[in-house]
Design brief:
heterodimer, A: alpha+beta, Porin, 16-stranded antiparallel beta barrel, 5 helices, about 20% helix, disordered N terminus, B: alpha/beta, Rossmann fold, 2 domains, 4-stranded parallel sheet, 10 helices, about 40% helix, binds zinc ion
Chain lengths: ~500, ~290
C-alpha cells in the first residue's frame, strides 16, 4: 500500500522537479536583468555625481576667483604691503615679480630650510623648571618651648630647591618628577628627596585617569599642593596633624570624571603610606596595612563671578600597628596606633570677576578634618621600647580617640601684584583631643611677576595648657622664585 | 526643538568669543558652539572654571586662537577634560592661527620678555583679513569632521567671507582719516590692526605683555607721547582705567575704550559688530 502510494507520487515529484527547474531558469534570467538594471543605475548615479562634483568645483573656483579679485582690489586701497607684515592670503600681482626675483627668493627659502635641518639630541628632553624658596623668620621662642621645628630668634631657612621635570612618555601617558633638596630643619643640611615621581595616563577610555608611582594623593584641597604654592607660608596645622603634611604616597590613584553635564570628580587611591612616615610592614605587609583614600568633589556656579567648590575626602588605614610603634606619653604610659581613619570636608568660595580677575579676586577656603583613630592604650608603659622587657603585660586595652581640626583663610587680591589675607588654624591632637592648638596668621603677598613672589606673614600660636607649650609670635618673609618651565596643573589652579 | 538634527549637531567648544562667532558662521545649524569666554575677559585670563570640564569632555571640536593666547588656562583644562579627541596635535584641536605668520616673535623664549606672548603676538584676529584665515581653518576642520556636510560648510564659509570682504572695504574707507595716526594701548593687542589700517602703534602701557608698568615707564611714555603728539590712548576694558586715563589726561590724548573680542563692550556680540564698533570709535576719536 505504501509502494502504491509512492508510485502514484512519482510523477508528481517528477513534475514538481521540472517545474522547480523551470522556475530557477526564469529566476536566473530575471536576476541577470536585475543586475543589468542595477549596473545601469550605478552608472547613471556615478555620472550624476561626477557632474555635480564638477559643478561644485567650478563654483568653488569661481568664488575663490571672486575673493582674489576683491583682495586685489583691497590691496590697491590698502597701505603698503610691507607694513602689514602678516597677510599670507594676500595675492601678489604676478607682474610685480620677475623670474630672477623668484629664483633668488627660493634660494633664500632653501637656505632657511637647510638651516632648520639640524640634529638636536636634546629635542625630546622633558620640560625643566626649578623653584627656589627661602624663608627668613624671627620667632620669640625656641623649639623647646613651642614644639616648632626651627630655631627661635633669627632664622634663615632655604626651605626647598625643587626640580620639576615633565614630559609625555608616549601617546598614552605622561610622567613627571619632583625632586626636592629640602634643608634639614635641625642641621640645615640639604638632602635630596624624591617628592613625586609618577606616571599618568592621558587617554584611558571611560573618562578615567590612572596615576602610579610616588605622588601627592588627593585628599582635601591643600594637602597635595607643594609648599611654595600655598596661599600662605606654612602648611595649615590640621593638615600637619592629620595627614602629616603633604599627602605623599607610593601607590595608585584612579580618577573618574562622571559623564554628566555637571562637574563631579571621583578619585580613589591605594598606597603604602599617606603623608605621614611609612608603615613598617616587618616581614610581610598585609593588604589591610595599605592606605585607602578617596575624594568626591563638585562645583557650583552661583553667578558668572562667584563659585563654590566642595569636596569630601576619606582616608582609611585598617591596620597601623607599626606606624610609629608604641609612643611614650607624658604620664608614663604608651599609645600604639592600630587603625587610622580621617575624614575631610573642603569648601572654597571664590569671587573671580570675569572682566578683571587678574586685578581683583577673593578666595575663602576652609577645610575640616576629623580623625577617629583606634589605639592600644598601655597605662604602665610596658610596651615602651625603653622598657627592660617590652611586651604586653595585661593592663593594655583598645579604644578610639576622636578629634578634629579646621583651618580657614580668606585671600583678597586688589591688584595684579598685591594680595593679602588671614589664616585661622585650630586643631586637636589626634592622640589627645584635650590638647588643642590655635593660631592665626595675617599675610601680605607681593607677586612681582608670575615667577617671583615675596610674602610677609605674622603668625601667633596660642598657649597650649595641656601640652604645656608656650605661645609664640613669629614673623616670616618668604621669597619664592621659579625659573624654566612652570605650568599649573588642574589641581594647582 | 530636540529632534534628530539637534542630536546630530557637532559640539564645538571655542576658547574665545571671536573664534566662537566665526565657527557659528561657518557651521550654521550643523554645529552647537559654546565659548569658554563670555567676551569681557582678558584674552589671556579666562578663569579656569570646573564647569568647563564637562563641556570640553563632550566636545567634538576645540577651536582656539593659538600662538599661546590661551596658555594660561587651556593646558590645564585640556588635561582635566579627559577627552583624547581634542588634545594638542589631534585633528579636532583647531588652531586658527595655522598659516598666519606672527608679528613680534620674541628673540628669545625667556621670562625677561614677560610670559604671555612667547610665540609672537596672538592678537591677529583684530585684523579682519587674517580673520579670513581663521575662517578657512575652521571650515577645513568642520569638513574633515563631517565630510557629508562639506557643501553646506563651504557655502556658509563663502557667504561669510563675502560679507566680511564687503565690510573690510567699508572699514578701510572709514579708517582713511586715521592713516599714520599714532596710538598707545594698555596691552599689546593692536599690531595687526595697526598694520592693516595704516595706523602707527606707539607702544603699550604694560611694560611687557602681562607685566604691569613701572612708574618710570609711565613717565617715559607720557614724555614720548607729548613729543610725538600721540592723539589716542586705547583702553581695553579688561584693564584698570586709572593709568590709561591719567596718561590721556596728561598728554591731552583721547581715551578710547575698545573691545578685544566680541561681547567686550555692549552691542559687539558678533565679530562684524565688534570690528564696526572699533572702527567707529577710533574714527570718532580723531578731530576732523
Ligand atoms: Zn596678549
Amino acid at each position: 500500500m505504501k509502494i502504491r502510494e509512492l508510485s502514484g507520487l512519482c510523477p508528481v515529484l517528477c513534475l514538481s522537479a521540472f517545474v522547480l527547474q523551470a522556475q530557477a531558469q526564469v529566476q536566473e534570467t530575471d536576476q541577470i536583468g536585475q543586475l543589468q538594471k542595477q549596473l545601469k543605475q550605478t552608472q547613471e548615479r556615478f555620472e550624476r555625481q561626477q557632474r555635480e562634483m564638477k559643478e561644485e568645483f567650478e563654483r568653488v573656483i569661481r568664488t575663490q576667483q571672486a575673493q582674489i579679485d576683491s583682495l586685489t582690489k583691497q590691496i590697491t586701497h590698502a597701505p603698503a604691503p610691507a607694513a602689514t607684515g602678516a597677510s599670507p592670503i594676500q595675492p601678489v600681482p604676478a607682474t610685480a615679480v620677475t623670474p630672477e626675483e623668484v629664483k633668488e627668493l627660493s634660494g633664500k627659502v632653501d637656505q632657511v630650510v637647510e638651516a632648520q635641518k639640524k640634529i638636536r639630541p636634546g629635542e625630546f628632553n622633558p620640560s625643566i623648571g626649578l623653584v627656589g624658596e627661602t624663608v627668613f623668620s624671627y620667632r620669640t621662642r625656641g623649639p623647646g618651648q613651642t614644639g616648632a621645628d626651627r630655631a627661635g630668634g633669627f632664622d634663615v631657612h632655604q626651605r626647598s630647591l625643587e626640580l620639576n621635570l615633565a614630559a609625555s612618555v608616549d601617546p598614552f601617558a605622561k610622567a613627571y618628577v619632583v625632586v626636592n633638596a629640602a634643608a634639614d630643619s635641625a642641621t640645615g643640611e640639604a638632602t635630596l628627596g624624591v617628592e613625586e615621581a609618577a606616571f599618568q595616563t592621558t587617554s584611558l577610555p571611560g573618562n578615567l585617569e590612572l596615576k602610579a608611582g610616588r605622588f601627592f594623593g588627593e585628599f582635601g584641597r591643600l594637602g597635595y599642593i607643594h609648599d611654595h604654592e600655598l596661599p600662605f607660608v606654612n602648611r595649615p596645622l590640621a593638615l600637619d596633624q592629620y595627614l602629616g603634611g603633604e599627602s605623599q604616597s607610593d601607590g595608585l590613584q584612579l580618577n573618574w570624571l562622571l559623564p554628566i553635564p555637571h562637574f563631579v570628580s571621583l578619585t580613589l587611591g591605594v598606597g603604602d603610606h599617606f603623608g605621614d612616615p611609612k608603615n613598617n610592614p616587618g616581614d610581610r605587609r598585609a593588604f589591610t596595612e595599605l592606605n585607602f583614600w578617596g575624594r568626591l568633589s563638585t562645583y557650583l556656579e552661583l553667578t558668572p563671578d562667584w563659585q563654590i567648590e566642595a569636596g569630601i575626602s576619606g582616608l582609611w588605614n585598617p591596620k597601623t600597628e607599626d606606624r610609629g610603634g608604641a609612643q611614650g606619653q607624658p604620664d608614663g604610659g604608651t599609645l600604639t596606633e592600630r587603625e587610622r581613619r580621617v575624614a575631610g570636608l573642603d569648601l572654597k568660595v571664590s569671587y573671580v570677576p570675569l572682566r578683571d580677575n587678574q586685578f581683583r579676586s577673593l578666595t575663602w577656603g576652609t577645610e575640616l578634618l576629623c580623625s577617629d583613630n583606634r589605639y592600644l592604650f598601655d597605662p604602665n608603659g610596658s610596651l615602651a621600647p625603653s622598657h627592660p622587657s617590652p611586651g604586653l603585660d595585661g593592663d593594655e586595652f583598645s579604644g578610639r580617640i576622636g578629634s578634629f581640626g579646621v583651618y580657614s583663610y580668606v585671600t583678597y587680591k586688589w591688584s595684579r601684584q598685591w594680595s593679602g589675607g588671614f589664616l585661622f588654624d585650630w586643631v586637636q591632637n589626634a592622640q589627645d583631643h584635650h590638647d588643642e592648638t590655635f593660631a592665626y596668621s595675617p599675610y601680605l603677598t607681593l607677586a612681582l611677576s608670575h615667577w617671583n613672589q615675596v610674602r610677609l606673614q605674622y603668625t601667633h600660636t596660642g598657649h597650649n595648657p595641656v601640652s604645656g607649650l608656650r605661645s609664640d609670635d613669629a614673623i616670616y618673609l618668604q621669597w619664592a622664585w621659579i625659573i624654566g618651565s612652570h605650568s599649573h596643573g588642574w589641581q594647582q589652579r | 526643538m530636540a529632534g534628530p538634527v539637534e542630536a546630530a549637531r557637532i559640539r564645538v567648544v571655542a576658547t574665545l568669543t571671536d573664534v566662537a562667532d566665526l565657527t557659528r558662521n561657518v557651521g550654521g545649524d550643523l554645529v552647537e558652539v559654546q565659548s569658554l569666554a563670555t567676551g569681557i575677559e582678558d584674552t589671556h585670563g579666562v578663569p579656569m572654571k570646573p564647569g568647563f570640564i564637562p563641556l570640553l569632555n563632550r566636545a567634538d571640536l576645540l577651536v582656539l586662537v593659538g600662538f599661546g593666547c590661551e596658555h594660561a588656562f587651556l593646558p590645564a583644562l585640556l588635561e582635566a577634560s579627559k577627552n583624547p579627541r581634542i588634545q594638542y596635535g589631534k585633528p579636532a584641536y583647531v588652531d586658527c592661527s595655522r598659516g598666519i605668520s606672527p608679528l613680534e616673535v620674541p628673540r628669545s623664549t625667556d621670562h625677561s620678555e614677560g610670559d604671555v606672548h612667547p610665540y609672537g603676538n596672538p592678537h591677529y584676529l583684530l585684523d579682519p583679513v587674517l580673520a579670513k584665515v581663521a575662517v578657512q581653518n575652521i571650515c577645513n576642520a568642520l569638513v574633515a569632521l563631517a565630510p557629508e556636510h562639506q557643501v553646506e560648510f563651504l557655502r556658509h564659509r563663502d557667504d561669510y567671507l563675502a560679507r566680511l570682504d564687503a565690510k573690510i572695504i567699508g572699514w578701510q574707507e572709514a579708517m582713511k582719516p586715521l592713516q599714520g595716526a599714532q596710538f598707545v594701548s594698555y596691552h599689546e593687542h593692536w599690531p595687526y590692526f595697526a598694520a592693516r589700517f595704516g595706523m602707527k602703534y606707539s607702544g603699550t602701557i604694560e611694560l611687557k605683555p602681562g607685566i604691569d608698568p613701572t612708574p618710570r615707564h609711565i613717565e617715559q611714555m607720557i614724555a614720548a607721547m607729548k613729543a610725538e603728539h600721540v592723539p589716542i590712548v586705547v583702553r581695553e576694558p579688561q584693564f584698570p582705567e586709572k593709568v590709561p586715563s591719567l596718561i590721556a589726561k596728561q598728554t591731552g590724548a583721547t581715551l578710547v575704550k575698545l573691545p578685544i573680542m566680541p561681547g567686550g563692550v555692549p552691542h559687539t556680540e558678533t565679530y562684524l559688530d565688534m570690528m564696526d564698533y572699533i572702527v567707529r570709535a577710533l574714527v570718532g576719536a580723531v578731530p576732523k
